[in-house]
Amino acid sequence: MKIAYLFSFFxxxxxxxxxxxxxxVVAITAIERRGGLPQFLAERDGKLFSFAHLGDTALENxxxxxxxxxxxxxxxxxFEAIVKPQxxxxxxxxxxxxxxxxxxxxxxxxxxxxxxxxxxxxxxELMMTYSLGQVTVTVHTDSRGTSxxxxxxxxxxxxxxxxxxxxxxxxxxxxxxxxxxxxxxVKDCLNEKDCDEQTHQLNRRAEFSFxxxxxx
Length: 216
Fold this sequence. Notes:
The protein is an alpha+beta fold. The protein folds into 2 domains: 6-100, no CATH class; 103-210, CATH 3.30.1330.60. 25% of the residues lie in helices and 31% in strands. The chain has helices spanning 79-89, 114-129, 147-167, 197-203, and strands spanning 6-7, 12-14, 24-31, 39-44, 47-50, 52-54, 58-61, 66-69, 74-75, 92-100, 103-104, 135-140, 175-181, 205-210. The chain has a 4-stranded antiparallel sheet with strand order 2-8-7-6. A hairpin with a 3-residue loop joins strand 6 (52-54) and strand 7 (58-61). Helix 2 (114-129) packs across helix 3. The radius of gyration is 18 Å and the shape is globular. The two termini are 36 Å apart.
């Protein structure tokens, strides 16, 4: 199931004094975060550069002297079309672009869906290519069932994700699972009937974050 929803940001790259050649080649990766800025990475000449968050409206890499402003109205399915031309305008050639999305689970299930496996494959390749530090997988459920059961369900989903990534070759020591259960709902359903199935689906998610050991 592909879920498209509106994010509250739009990518615009601000011009800074860049000492870059016109044929600088980069590979771009963005990791989706629900309700916040993505984690944004750019690889150049074998080095991976992370972008720091400047409040909730901009990302910046000081080494590249590059700031990305995020004022409004952005959809995940248009991310590449927005970002690539602006890198090109600054003298970069984008050789590769990927967006690692939040993954979702079916109701009361721990099975890794096909759409989720595609995102996990991208994450595994990134982790095995570069030093990202420890990646944290935060696992959420919808509000149906008891809080205790949902904690257990989230833990099982986290273990399924961890097994998938380690089977792909990721070092288990580089993974941490944070069990959220129903504590961080996209929409708080005081009564199950308050939420439709689409909202319940958005709650059944797992997100990825890391504290990168990267070239700044």
